[in-house]
Amino acid sequence: MYIPFDELPPQARVWIYQASRPLAEAEQAALKPLLEQFAEDWSSHGTNLHASAELLHDQFLVLANNESATAASGCSIDKSVNFVRELEQQFNISFFDRTQLAFLRDGEVELVSMSELKNKVAAGDISRDTLYFDTLVTNYGDLQAAWPRPAQQSWLSRYF
């Protein structure tokens, strides 16, 4: 069952997939109905999930499920991963590259490779207060309250 993204409860579980580039307007227009259809059809052991899906900041695919209504099973999570992999093929984009970190700089998403991170921190290009899109956020409440969050409030704190 599809739930509008902004109507999810704070405890709803989220899975965040970071795209390797921003999606163009035409791509976003093509993606939106696919996301809604997936959320509508997403199920666990034959029971529809109370799910939603959204593209944030033109670059972050967020799938969500109200676990209080119906918990996602391993099989349903596998379905979501397969769906995202299909999107990768359709839009010629990667959603699974964990070597790129995303920061919000001057209102734009900036990707920084893991190999560049220490140098960017040492040069002062990335500070403890630089806003970081932490894809490890697991619930809708945290996504709404603190995303992006200062880098020092994430696993990146060890670099400062």
Sum this structure up briefly.
The protein is an alpha+beta fold. 31% of the residues lie in helices and 24% in strands.
Q: Topology of this protein?
A:
Blueprint: E1 13-18, H1 25-41, E2 43-44, E3 47-48, E4 51-56, E5 60-65, H2 74-91, E6 100-105, E7 108-113, H3 114-122, E8 131-132, H4 140-145, E9 149-150
Antiparallel strand pairs: 1-5, 2-3, 4-5, 6-7, 6-8, 8-9
Protein name: ABC transporter ATPase
Structural class: alpha+beta
- Number of distinct helices: 4
The succession of helices and strands, N to C, reads EHEEEEHEEHEHE
> Major β-sheet, in short?
4 strands, antiparallel
Helix content: 25-40%
Order of the strands making up the biggest sheet: 7-6-8-9
* Total beta-strand segments: 9
Report, as a whole number of angstroms, the end-to-end distance: 43 Å
Strand content: 15-25%
Global mean pLDDT = 95
Give start-end ranges of low-pLDDT stretches: none
Radius of gyration: 16 Å
Shape: globular
Protein name: ABC transporter ATPase
Organism: Pontibacter populi
